[in-house]
Amino acid sequence: MQRQCRTGQAGKVRLLPLLCVLTLLALFEARQLSFLNRNNKKKVLFSARGYELVAFPSKGKVPIPSLKFRKIPLKPLTLAVSGSAEGSFEKSALTGFPYSTDNAAALLLGLPRLGGRLTLGMDAPAVNSESEDSNHVEAGYEQSLPGGGSVAARLRSNGEWGASFRHEVEDVGIVSGGLNSQLDWNLDLNTTYAPVRGFTPSVAYGATQDGIHLRGRVDKDFSPHWHGSYGLQNIPGKYSPVDFVHDSTISFTAGRHTIQASAAYDRQMLKSPLTGTLAYTLQTRPVTLQALMDGQQYALAAHSGRKSIAATLGRPNEEGQRSSQVQLQLGQVAATVKMEGSSKPRLRLSKIVL
After folding, report:
1. Is the model's pLDDT at 38 over the cut of 60?
2. What single string gives the DSSP state of each residue in 166-199?
């Protein structure tokens, strides 16, 4: 018997495999957390401001539980799972899941008591994808340092690797650096100085394989409503004043309304060295509205707790074509529809870690 399906129903049927995968990811995460706590027999009676009142079962012959008021301890282990699947709206693409979609998954293993986090991820592009990328597995680890800062390292199955660190030195600033498999490296020092007549200066000193760079910035509150900043930096290895990059921002806040205008000048951008951005934010209860316009796109967004919806419309390119995107997020699940020029729209479903 041949099955007939209307156009409106076909979209629902094609989305079912992707929704099932995201549901399985959420169930896996919940089952693992339940497994970690299966032997936890204590009962929390009350908790507030980082402390809790706990009742422990009796260890003697008299069945009287013991009570203890303590600071809430860190969990020994945390698990989180994220994943995504992206494909076109064509029937052959969606019904061929997972071979016809670009898939990604990651497992995040946290060690709160040690201050570490291990990440295991995998990328699996579509079998008929035009991209030259193949399946890759990536492992990464990040460790917090005493006194503030962290070190991190990652390794991919294709041989790529990278390492970075960040550490805050008292009365000096934040020192950071990194090195990757391409032997690209950087070393930076970010320092903020005491305000001078209301102006707060900050300087970032850095060096890369291409040379030394310096970035300076000054912030100023002109009034309770007006705030401005100006920044100047050179490109690593280029020290002529004509090659400096300038940027400035001014914002106005009145109650629930905020308007921010930014401009940047970069001589390296031959087609449009001068760029600008205009943004507006309205904070209401319970929704926050945002609007943005720059030389590349128009964007609108609405946020309410863990729910949001956003839309982006790109400006026409040299061929007169636009790109557009709409995203809906409900908690940890997000759905994104995007279209590039005259190409067919693509759908991406993902489970994210908040």
Report:
1. no
2. EEEETTTEEEEEEEETT--EEEEEEEEPPPBTTE
